[in-house]
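Notes continue from the previous slide.

Worked example: a multi-chain complex. Inputs as given:
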Amino acid sequence: MNRDHLRILLPVLSLGILLAAVFYMQPRAMSYFGLNLLFNLAVPVALATIAQMMILMVNDIDLSIGTFVSFCACVTATFVQTDPLIGYGILFAAILVYAGMGAIIYARGLPAIVVTLGMSFFWSGMAVLVLPSPGGSAPDWLRTLMTAKTPFLPVAIIAPIVIAVVMHYFIKRSSLGVLLRGVGGNEQAIERSGWSVMGLKAFAYGVAALFCVLSGMALVGLATSADANIALRYTLLSIAGVILGGGEFTGGRVSPIGAVIGALTLTLAASFLSFLHLSPDWQIGAQGAILIIVLAVRLVFTRREALI
Amino acid sequence: MVENQNVIGTEEVPIITLGDAGVSFGPVQALKGACLSIMAGECIGVVGHNGAGKSTLVNVINGRLTPTSGDVSYDGAQSVADFRNAQRARESGIRSVFQELSLCPNLTVLENYRIPYRNMPIKGWRKNAASAVLASLDAVFPDHGIDPYSVVADLPIADRQMVEIAIAFARRDIDARLVILDEPTSSLDGAIADQLLAYIKKFCASGGSIIFISHMMGEIFDVASRIVVLKDGTIIENDAAQNFTRDGLVDAMGHVAPDDQTRGADTKRRDFGDEVLRMENGLNACQGEVVGLAGLAGHGQAEALAKCFLERTSDWSASRNPAVVFVAGDRSRDGVMPLWSIMRNLTLQTLVEFSRTFLVDRKAEQNIARTWHEKIGIKTDDLNNPILSLSGGNQQKVLFSRALASSAPIVIMDDPMRGVDVGTKKEVYRMIRSEAEKGRTFLWYSTETDEILECDRVFVFRDSEITAELKGDEITEENMLRASFEMQEAGE
């Protein structure tokens, strides 16, 4: 059992405890339909969290995820639905813009936090241009996909598992994933071995953008319409999700499985607080408190590790 | 790859040939007219003092630096000096282990094997990587006890160095033919270092080549078949190892002819005041003394200075009567405020001392800046110009004035003359002398011998410990080199 295993233990435990508490208070949630309700909004959050993880993995941080997902949702609810070709073209171009942003951040030595903060206003403006007032509608196939009645387990459970497993193999097991994590761990070592750090960073940003696009589409599939502010919360949720899942801000220490679990935990925490009949005014504060508790426990864990 | 197969074993073709290669960074010539060729089966020991050009030479060989003059040829091929040398070096089987560890701490041992391996077959790579790293570890360091699946950050520093060395020797699509080891034993204990030396001999016997850089004379003489001595960017000796003695090597690294002899006499031999500073490791200084910290770069001098400074300052507030001030050597990292004007940079240290109120005393600030502008001769018309409008030497003058303007009795200098022109250096030496005569104490870490010779007393560091204290006439380049290089047998 190495450090990575210990790291994943805590998110699994916190999700388990939270789930047990929810089932205890509301036994009817322990059903196909109940689970779907509890977790279906977790799918876009999980996708956005993976996107944030890609950025944190290369020692940067992305503050534009919320507005970018909103923009993607707006494009999905309008162009993708009416003129698919133009719609997918826009989304594809947006991914290229993201990859280019990653390359520029590296080439010019810019702080990612500033560049992405600036870009967040750009995406926000673009979203309003595409969809000035809430509306639009989801493409039929997307609606069908997100609300499909799969046997045994609902989509809301299957999708996060698929995301986690695919990304685990890509990031933790593949040889390309090693290079990407290496950029976060020791950029100089990667460069000395003759790899293009710029290319790797651009690639990481591009993959992040792809996941944001998927997140925006999933969101429209669930909500059936979009709004320029639909996903603003995702910026902070995604950062919290990665950290909750055992990732760290620097050093390329991330875990895709942990990140997905972190996203599920954060979504579940909101439902849990509703079950407690806590007034919505207090919910955000209480969510923060849950986050602080989990991270405090993790600190105790890592301190102990350091002592051994 | 087929070409490589042909070359291996045919000992006529050198793996690499440097023909009159030179590297200059702006006006600084880091390497001058280097001629060197390395044949299969050779182990080349490279020695030299700080700034002698060891790392430049190594970087030219592994292709990371393109020589600005002369040429490099790999495997006797037609040499073209362009940016693709790194790839050529890789294809001729040249690999490097750098002095500072260059593993990714967040990855496992086997994943780190992946990073320098460019064309790794993807299928089943984890299993292959694990067995390749393990095989190499077993070969170089028998009984190492390192699990290739463990995360590097979890390993102790000696194990990390072992992993790095093993990865450099591990099998890949192109065999290792020339491995550059830069201070490979710095974190290894004696027994493990011996294993490495034994492996190096075996590797060379089977036709591989090694470039071995070390400050341990014993190790150099143990493994090297040929020794290259560098000084001031020039290869001054290049001969079979048996033609050298330890003392001869130290002499070769030092100055050939001592220049101005007259200096020392009139400036030294003064009476100093009471002892004002003493540290656990034995470093001490008296009032009015200029104390030098010498030794090879990275042997704990900067840490000793930082400790000395931090022990004497508060984390919370600046004092009106500071005990100690600091002159930074790495200007861009811990010296200048790049967006500020010259004046603001100059008065940063003394803001609290000279402003009696909560607000900055603009008049006092300007006075200080004007005084030092004249005193130290900063070349500018207007002190309100941005600091980056100045040349490196003048920026450093500003940092000196920042420290000297303060009333602090102790001044700590962390190799402050890096990249400063000779004229400025002379002015600053004079300034330091006159300030010392007024009763200030200077702690001066420098990688340049000329500067250390200016000091009244010198402590030589090796492996973060003081190995010699030199006074008066004992302060010579030879004595310093002797103390900075480990003269004992390896492993003793």
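Summary box: Chain A has one domain: 3-302. The interface with chain B takes residues 2-4, 173-175, 178-179, 181-182, 184-186, 188-190, 192-195, 251-253 of chain A (CB under 8 Å).
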